[in-house]
Amino acid sequence: MKANFTPISQFNPSFGEKFFCDTNVWLYLFYPQFDRTPQHIIDKYSKLFGSIKIKGNLILSHPQMFSEFINVWLKAEYDKFRKSAHMTLTFKEYRNSEHSKEALEKIKVVLNKVLECTTILSGTFTTEELKEIILNCDKADFNDLCFVELCKQQNCILVSHDIDYNSVTGLSIDIISANNKYVD
Question: Which of 13, 82, 108, 143 is deepest in the core (most CB within 10 A)?
C-alpha cells in the first residue's frame, strides 16, 4: 500500500488538520536557492503554507528536521564558497571560516522563524517502529522514514517534494506534494 497522495493544486486545508513539513519544504520557503527548483513550484508550497497558517492549523516539526535543515543549507553554502573561491577547502576547514559563521547566523535567524510557527515533537520510537524504519531504509532516507512514523503517530499530513516516499510500501499517511512524479 502506498501513501495517499494529493497534488498540492487540488488540496485545500481544512480546519483542525495537522501538518508536518519535510525539510525540503522549509528550505523552499526560507532558502530557495539551495537547489534548482523552479520558482512556480516554490510558490505552490508558499501558497499552501499561507493557507495552513490562515486557518490556524497546527504545523508539527522535530529536531531531526532542524538538523537536516542546517546540514543541507551549510553544505550548499560550502559548495558555493568552494566554487567561487576555486579552493579545495575541506568542509571541516570551511566550518571554521568567516563565511561559514555568517551562513550559520542566517540559518539561526531562519530556524527561529520556523520555531515560531511550529510545535516541536519530541520523544522516541518503539523497537517495533524502529524495525519498520530500518526495514525500509533501502527505499528512502532514514530521516524521511522517521518523519513518516511521526506523521503516523500524530495523524498528520506530510507536505513534501521528495519522491522517495513513493517507493516505500506500507505507508498509511497522506502526502501533499507539487512533485508530478507522484502520479507517474
Answer: 13
